[in-house]
């Protein structure tokens, strides 16, 4: 599941501002 969070950050840095929103999807695993 950690792969999802790392993938989003490395794959599309532009999603950084959306991080708080994606926390429920990928970062939530953390």
From TrEMBL:
Residues 1-30 are annotated as: Disordered. This is Uncharacterized protein.
